[in-house]
Amino acid sequence: MGQLVFIGLGLGSERNMSVQGLGIASKADLVFAEFYTSLMPELDLDNLRKMTGKVITVLSRSDIEEHAQQKLLDRIVGKKAVLLVPGDPMIATTHIDLRLRAEKAGIKTDVVPAASIFSAVCALTGLQAYKFGRTVTLPHVDSSPPESPYGYIRANLGIGLHTLILLDLAAERNYYMTISEGLEYLRRVESNRKERIIRDESVFVGVARAGTESTVVKTGTMSDLQRCDFGGPPHCLIMPSKLHFMEAEALQVLTGARPEILRSHISG
Q1: How far apart are CA 216 and CA 45, in angstroms?
Q2: d(CA 34, CA 52)
Q3: DSSP state of 32
Q4: Which percentage of the chain shows pLDDT scores above 90?
Q5: Are 39 and 86 a contacting pair, CB within 8 Å?
Q6: Which domains are seen in the chain, by residue range?
Q7: DSSP assigned state of 105
Q8: What are residue 92's phi and psi, to 5 degrees?
Q9: Residue 87's pLDDT band (boundaries 50, 70, 90)?
Q10: What's the pLDDT at 30?
């Protein structure tokens, strides 16, 4: 009935695609791609076409989420196809949904993993992967911001776990939430909740353009980071909880954290 392989492009640019992924893409009958689930700031689509030697059909959000049957699944019956996606393929629920739909339609699926923001933040900061709790996303809203992310951050802090805070994006509208906007979001929720989870002196790590040559990683208080210019998107935040002494040292060496702001975070 056909085959669909989800291939992760990794972070930053097409140059981070694995050799395995490139080999599969270059032998496929059809090559599709989507770039709405994340921003790859150094992506060169023409170079990606040259690398694979294929015509690449770029799909929109509606193509995959609303019209996948017509735009994708019907076209790959009896053929070998790949879908190139930013980061790691199965991080986004839209790709999991598409994979299940393909399998139910009798299309065999496979996945070629790649680097994601989840692995990148550990490499860039020295924070330990097993000490992260539930990841949260801050949505862009014009009215009162949803408070559920605040609750998850509080729960993570309560059991000594760090929180990766993803910031909203809408590629179709060229909107990418900044670190400053994300912190202001949390400040607004704190003003409603008044639980003192988010304070001016709270420590955060800001990460911009992970996986590129212009990556920026800085640790500071909430007030510090709101004054920083992190440059272009994509951005994300980390709110650390209790730190192993090696994590604290890594934040100082790798991200410029001042020792005094970390003292209360270091676990015995």
Answers
A1: 24
A2: 15
A3: E
A4: 94
A5: yes
A6: 3-112 (3.40.1010.10), 117-265 (3.30.950.10)
A7: T
A8: -85, 130
A9: very high
A10: 98
